Amino acid sequence: MQRTAQASALKSADNPVTEPGPAQQKRRERIIQVGTLIILLAIWEFAARDANKLLVAVPSDIAVATWELMVSGELFWATLDSMSTFVLGFFVASVLGIAIGFAMGTNRTVEVILDPYINALYAMPLVALIPILMLWVGIGFLAKITIIILFAVFPVIINTVTGVKNVDKHYLDIGKAFMASRAMVYRKIIAPYALPFVASGLRIALGRGIIAMIVAEFLTSISGLGGLIINYTNAFETAKAFAPVLVVALLANALTLLVQRVEERFGRWRRR
Predict the structure, then answer these.
(1) pLDDT 10s digits, 181-220
(2) Of the candidates 248, 244, 235, which has an alpha carbon nearest to the alpha carbon of residue 75?
(3) What does the alpha-carbon distance between residue 242 and residue 147 come to, in Å, rounded to a whole number?
């Protein structure tokens, strides 16, 4: 029996269990994700087959309706309208958030002044401010931009402050020892170290910004993807109302993946 155990041990040593590589692991995860999606769509299709078509749409009907809206160009122009607003609002929110976050993270006085207001506005249900904003800036393009900025800027500020404050003090001491200028310390030490925190804030801001975009299109000028949802829901064309929802979900995933790729590209030095 002892010889059998030794033989098994030698055999295991000769044939070690190999861990899957990164490419294999990623492929396996993609298969799991796609398989889960197919199962959920199949359950939805069969469970809602006998439901009232005015209230519940099945995936096959949504696919047909999406294709019809794409062929007519209605979905394309609505997406272009929404994304032009979102991209501009998100860009402004990102720049403002990073700038304010760096100022608060590196200057105690600025943090003391702004911190109570940042925390209060971040915790506040910002939808309650939209009627007031509509009084101030109207119901057009500027109103939608303002709402997106208001929703998206605070996660960027808070995460940037956290990233700046978590910079390793040893790196700052090395910068001082080599007589690095303030601008060089920002560019070479603080900014790269804070980048993962900023990227996390941008990912959160993406979701909040897309929500703000749809809410703004619901409550201000009924246009874009949000306008399609409202109009087709009011007409009880549920399948067509789901089409812009599908586009929003795909855009959110694509933009989040883009932010992750940027973070991986510029954050490699931290893994060395």
Answers:
(1) 667 766 667 777 778 888 888 888 998 999 888 888 888 7
(2) 244
(3) 24
72: tokens are 């007519």
CATH for 73-271 is 1.10.3720.10
Token pair belonging to 131: 């009627």
Q: Is 203 helix (H, G, I), strand (E, B) or coil?
A: helix
- Of 122, 225, 111, the closest CA to residue 161 belongs to 111
Contacts 24+ apart (CB under 8 A), 112-121: 118/154, 118/157, 118/158, 121/150, 121/154
Q: Which residue matches tokens 């956290």?
A: 162
Task: Count CB atoms within 10 A of the CB of residue 48.
Answer: 16
Is the separation of the CB atoms in 224 and 85 below 8 Å? yes
| Distance in angstroms (rounded) separating the CA atoms of residues 152 and 255 | 14
pLDDT digits (tens, 9 = 90+) for 119-130: 888 888 888 888
Model confidence, pTM: 0.79
Q: CB-based contacts of 122: which residues, under 8 Å, 6+ apart?
A: 154, 155, 158
Distance of alpha carbon 113 from alpha carbon 104, whole angstroms: 9
Give the C-alpha distances (Å, rounded to integers) separating 114 from 59, 92, 105, 120, 148.
48, 19, 11, 10, 20
Backbone angles phi, psi at 189, to 5 degrees: -115, -60
Q: What are the tokens at 168?
A: 């390793």
